[in-house]
Write a structure and sequence with these properties.
With 296 residues, the protein is an alpha/beta fold. The protein has two domains: 89 residues, Arc Repressor Mutant, subunit A; 205 residues, D-Maltodextrin-Binding Protein, domain 2 (3-Layer(aba) Sandwich). Strands 3, 4, 5, 6, 9, 10 and 11 form a seven-stranded mixed beta sheet that branches. α5 links the parallel β3 and β4.
Length: 296
């Protein structure tokens, strides 16, 4: 069965917006009309596609259908862009990227390619341990994840790894860790977390000191540049990747609290085995960019 185009558009709008009301506003329809289109699609498929919660969620059948619809939409956009070069909008590819990847190498390395090929990206941010779920749910067509195993019908390609070290401003280190990185000192020193999904600091502190989450004070700063800035300002200490810490450590602006100890986070590019031409090109460029920017 090939889904009705208007019904498929309604389903994607509901998932992207999170509710029938917001989807209706985006499509310039009434919520009732959007609901009828989704219900019609569910009848045609013979299975429920949405869990009507707030926000709405996809069933397993809905996830598979949305994955198909997004791939189909991208193929259509590429075809129209080639057929009507002057009139058609360039294709837009939804991609999942973790914050540190976006904040360091992803855009600087890929922007020349994106400009040259006239490709639009819809970047959806999440922690590297959680971007895979965006792919599973059909919200993106490709993405960077720390999960090595591919979904069925997809491929996972190793990009390299980002090396994280536990860093602090020198004055902060002298104040809170005069005798080194000890359990007693760590119980009092504020540590920087990106958000509540960020597990890097938690993993490192528990590995090195045996302290569980909740045994030390935490700042949450959910933005890449302000996160680095908060460590430079002495608000707390935290894990930074080589792409962000190299110049700061070399200049003495930050110091390593546990020299010789680090966390390596391996990253993988997930994409469909059968891809549109533009997504295939994007995959090639991401692999090449990672080869220049990441450790191996």
């Amino acid at each position: 069965m090939i889904p009705d185009a208007r019904q498929g558009e309604a389903l994607l709008a509901v998932i992207d917006a999170g509710s029938f009301e917001q989807a209706a506003a985006a499509l310039h329809l009434t919520p009732s009309a959007v609901s009828q289109r989704v219900s019609g699609l569910e009848s045609a498929v013979g299975a429920p596609l949405l869990i009507r919660s707030r926000p709405v969620r996809l069933t397993s059948a809905g996830q598979r259908l949305v994955q198909y619809l997004r791939r189909s939409r991208l193929m259509e956009q590429e075809f129209l862009a080639e057929l009507k070069e002057e009139e058609a909008l360039p294709p837009r590819i939804p991609v999942a990227v973790n914050n540190d990847t976006l904040g360091t190498w992803f855009l600087p390395e890929l922007s020349p390619f994106l400009n040259r090929e006239n490709i639009l990206l819809e970047i959806i941010l999440d922690d590297q341990d959680h971007t895979y779920s965006l792919f599973e749910k059909g919200l993106v067509l490709a993405g960077v994840s720390s999960e090595p195993e591919p979904m069925r019908g997809c491929r996972s390609q190793h990009l390299g790894f980002m090396r994280y070290r536990l860093l602090a401003q020198p004055q902060f280190a002298r104040r809170f860790f005069p005798d080194g990185f000890t359990r007693e000192a760590a119980r009092k020193a504020p540590v920087m977390f990106f958000d509540r999904k960020d597990s890097l600091q938690e993993i490192f502190i528990e590995r090195e000191l045996g302290l569980p989450l909740g045994a030390y004070p935490i700042h949450y700063v959910p933005s890449s540049d302000p996160f680095v800035e908060s460590i430079k300002l002495g608000m707390g200490y935290g894990m930074l990747p080589r792409q962000q810490y190299k110049d700061l450590v070399d200049s003495g602006g930050l110091v390593d609290l546990v020299p010789g100890k680090f966390l390596d986070i391996h990253l993988y590019w997930h994409s469909w085995r059968i891809q549109s031409p533009k997504l295939e090109l994007l995959t090639e460029q991401v692999l090449a960019a990672a080869g220049r920017a990441l450790d191996r």
